[in-house]
Amino acid sequence: MKRIFEKLDDIIIKISSAILFIMMIWVFSDAVGRYVFNHPLPGTLEITEEYLMVCIVFLSISYAQKHKAHVRVDLFIHYIPEHILKVTDVIMQLFMLFYAVLLTRQAFAQALWCIEVNSTSRGSLGYPLAPAYFLMGLGLLMTSVRILFELVEGARVIKGGQS
User: Fold this and answer.
1) What domain range is 124 assigned to?
2) What is the pTM of this model?
3) CA–CA separation, 20 and 55 (whole Å)
4) Which end of the chain has fewer CB atoms within 10 angstroms, the N or the C?
């Protein structure tokens, strides 16, 4: 199961990378259109902030968690015994899992609400917002599963260390 998850996570990070490339081309084209031809691309701000940035950020969280790329304050870690650090990591992962599950639930609930009320963007294009919330929920779901796998692994390490 973890192997399938890893393959899915690899696909999602490649999609996120492609979206980052698309956003770069889009914003560059908008800037050229605005300053060279005095004709910017319509909806650039709305699409980049309500779709592309959402995709890049939320579809990448699990990947960042996998590579321990989130911000950590490690000022006092060198003074704490290793076994206490392992227990502390498991406790923090429990908190992270709880928070990630709550955010996942809320993102999917918001997506369903957007479908129910036919919520659209405030800009001139008026495109539906539900897909962005679904993508947010997908990224948070992947992060929740990643944290769950790490939590199980951390519990195994702690249990193995005490035997």
Assistant:
1) 2-162
2) 0.86
3) 9
4) C
